[in-house]
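Field reference: sequence -> structure
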Amino acid sequence: MAMMATFWQIVALAGLVVTCVSCSKSRVFLETDQQLARDRHHWAEGAVARPDARMPLMFALKHRNVKRLQKALHDVSVPGSAQYRHHLPTGHVREMVRPSLRSLRCVRKWLRANNVSVRRHCNSSLGLEFIHCDLSVAQASALLQITVREYRHSHGHTALRADGHYSVPHEVAPHLDFVGGVHRLKHHGSSYTDTQSDNISRLGGQPGGGPAVEEEAAEEEAADGATTVTSSGNESPSSLRALYGMTPTDVGQGTSSKGVQAVIQFLEQYYRQGDLTQFMETNGGSFKHMTEPVKVLGPNLGSEKGAGLEASLDIQYIMGVGANLPTWFWSTAGRHENQEPFLLWLEDVAHSDVVPHVISISYSDQEDTLSRAYMVRVDQEFQKLGVRGVSVLAASGDDGAGCWDGTRFRPRFPASSPHVTVVGGTKRDRSGINGEAAVELSSGGFSNVFPRAPYQELLVGYYLADIKAAGDLPAQALAYFNSTDTRAYPDVAAMAENYQIINNGYKYPVSGTSCAAPTFAGVISLLNNRVMTELSQPPLGFLNPLLYKYNFQALHDIQGGCARGCGPVGFCARSGWDPTTGLGTPSYDWLWEVSKEIADPRNHDAWHS
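Structure field:
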């Protein structure tokens, strides 16, 4: 976990003298683009909160040297750069972006002026970029000039939030990106489709042992994000490994492997060890699999509270495909009642000196339910991971292009972040390339927030020119999305339909890009391990510049199938990059050949000549 220190101690050690201009009555509203009505769908507004109720807040101080961070990430991630894969150590990154002393002084003075004791109420992250304060509602209300109310979700849990936008003094505003814990309520939905049907079957015997025997299952509560029923659970790690060109010898070396992978969980999603052991014994294929993560960070109450479908899916498939590699299960507590779990995890990983080389994330929201400041800051946190050599893969989502008011597509986040590798979905199709086609649920499109990254400019430009020339979309549909120089996603794809998992002793068939993300992550993890072991090279790190440069040499270009959109209007797969399957699905052998090519020093000489 990230190291924490009291804000008072940090300031004292730095020898700071508070010289910020005294706080005036002039104020600035932050995050005014946060759509409160959309954010609070399924939440009912209640009474004004008691003044003595507790309201934890998270103050996100602005990073320094953001452009320098962006350049560093470019230099270590673009094949041909003199610094390619010369990743930076954690401490170097921390010092590069640490907020200025002026920001620290000003925010601290503001807190003290509003009767917040930084010694008793607050602490700071190791890099000083986040200040956490446990305040009363009365303190929070005075500090941000808000009215705090209790909100109750349709599932029963409650949260304290402001009923309108918040403000800060004008001299404080330039030092803050946002204040967390004031607005956001909507859960980060997981990107999978679960099943409650006759296809659910109970495993006989004790968890983790005995033969599998099908019985009729009692109906269980669906996890967040459940939508439709899948017909069967035909996919397994062995079928996926065969599909993407891996043999039983393409495995890690157990705990001595150099490549490390992780799945990230929120919203009280836990796994059960008995389920994982049984899954590997039943679905692992012709070789013996590791059956336990080497590290569990944060809470995992699967044995006490039961496993969650998302957690079971993620851990079973990243370990099943990325076979016999050290795996972490990284869980962050909280359900958004009074915290920002996604940011808490990013803060934690930013200050952990040892982190996995590959991380799979299967949670997302619509862009229009989040503020621009929040998304930009999260994207900066992803850049900090990339410059350290971490590959972050995120599920694209399960609502196709999405649809708002029948007239606009709805991009998703963090899928729209330019600094993660976003994984869309495919399904089995005998007539398709590699026996695959785009699956209808695969989310993709164009961001309304982030500019298009240079690494994808050429291929996305080809796509846009082609669909306009070919008339693939009705003329009015071109107004449904922002195609003017904005981030396009997904980047890649993998199978996303009819996976079988074991959850609380039951077999479940599930579908969604939450299936695709840990599958693609497992492929990259095996590749990373081989690069580090056989080639004695650093990990691949941020993948996108590499994938867009070598797409035709490394990926199966899926060219059939369409995703949902607004009515009959959605995106379809086609030659080259497209907004349903990105650049395509993995070929392990091809990716390995590319990895060897970029590791060859003769190619480095050619790049720099």
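Note: Confidence is low (pLDDT under 50) at residues 1-19, 192-231, 604-609.
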